[in-house]
Amino acid sequence: MSIIEITGRTVGNAPRRGEIVEILGDSARPHYRVQWEDGHVSTLFPGSDVRIIPPPVSERELRACHGYTVDSAEGHVGSVLHVRKAKGGLELHVATPQGVVRVPQASIRHFDPHTKRIAVVLG
């Protein structure tokens, strides 16, 4: 699962880190069950001071994601048509109602082969 990090609110405070053990809510308003480094488990509604560090997705996993559903914070994006090599890594070619959109591998925030869903940040 992904790592979540909350930046210190005052100068000199170290960031607080934990592992996301469950994603709650929907893609429009996700929140998370997090196990913190000290072992404590809590529910977190992320704010602007939260950074999600996704686990690396292997090239093999990514190449096998044809047909996966792609979502962003704005909602459903489309389905993966294929994966191609691109400058700086791989990119997903996603079928949307507006046409094919290219999504770089660096934009992937969550990859779940069990539900065949990929969460991305579009920019």
What does this structure look like?
The protein is 4% helix and 54% strand. Strand 6 and strand 7 form a beta hairpin. The longest helix has 5 residues, at 59-63. The two termini are 23 Å apart. It contains one helix and eleven strands, in the order E-E-E-E-E-H-E-E-E-E-E-E. With 123 residues, it is mostly beta strands. The strands form two sheets. The chain has a six-stranded mixed sheet. The chain has a five-stranded antiparallel sheet with strand order 4-3-2-1-5, with no helix packed on it. The mean pLDDT is 87. The chain has one helix at residues 59-63; strands spanning 3-6, 16-24, 31-36, 41-44, 50-53, 69-72, 75-86, 89-96, 99-104, 108-112, 117-120.
Short description:
This protein is mainly beta and 123 residues long. The protein has 1 helix and 11 strands; from the N terminus they run βββββαββββββ.
Strand sequence of the main sheet, in spatial order?
9-8-7-6-11-10
Percent of residues in β-strands:
over 45%
Share of helical residues? under 10%
Number of helices: 1
What's the alpha carbon Rg, rounded to whole Å? 16 Å
Main sheet specs? 6 strands, mixed
The residue ranges in which pLDDT falls below 50 over 5 or more consecutive positions are none
Structural class: mainly beta
- How many DSSP-defined strands? 11
Order of helices and strands: EEEEEHEEEEEE
Shape: elongated
Instruction: Give the N-to-C terminal Cα separation.
Output: 23 Å
Average pLDDT over all residues: 87
